[in-house]
User: What shape does this take?
Amino acid sequence: MTKNVGIMCFSPTNTTRKICNAVALGMGSEDPVVLDMTFLNTRSSIIANSRTAMKDIDHLIVGAPVYAGKLPLQAIDYLRAFGGTGKACTAIVVYGNRDYGIALYNMVEMLLQNGFTVVAAGAFIGEHSYSDIVPVAVGRPDKSDIDKARNFGARILSASRHLSLKDIPVQLDKASKSDKYPSLKPSYNEKQCVQCGKCAKACPLGLLLSESGRYISQAAKKQCIGCMACVRCCKQKARVAKTNPIVKMVMNSILRQASKERKEPIIII
Assistant: This one.
């Protein structure tokens, strides 16, 4: 077993974290060091103390979701901030059964540029952020996905080579070629809201008022990345994913194939 396994992930709905935890468990680590980059305050603190944060980690599992075929900007920020000084790492992206685009390639590229030794990489499937509108990969990662992630972790222990960018596949499409991140903004129903504040705590960008489910401002609404963390945690259905018929028709067209087939994880060792 690797002496000290660490997990560094951005995971608004806990999907990426589940996969990373399973990989760590497969590596024999039941209690990995966790560098949770999901929330603004902890993300800033860890980045500011990156050398200290990495001190006791021998192998770092790096995880992030895929948005529009790309890494979210928050993940890019922390990947650029961390130096690896030759330490081993595994790169993992989690996508909604459509395409992982250039996300995995870019993650490995930044890790290599920052001095990490990448020994393994994987693209796993998680429930699509907009599955309330178009059901895609509902319930994933499921038991099969978690088992495959654990097996992946076990295989990492015996990895005998280092990966280069030539080893990492890409899935180029219109979304991944664009630098834009189109996102669906959750709707807010004030009548359903009980002012519990759970959505504000769940928002990775801190965009919501703690005393309600409203955005702090119109500018904050524009910053929403559409991760749907607030929707997933709201049992009152005060924050919901919904859209008008025209946008829904476009989404159905984009996600039609993804809603019909089951993709399996891709692992590279």
Observations:
- The mean pLDDT is 94.
- The CA atoms of residues 120 and 156 lie 7 Å apart.
- Residues 187-242 form a domain with the Alpha-Beta Plaits fold (CATH 3.30.70).
- The longest strand covers residues 117-125.
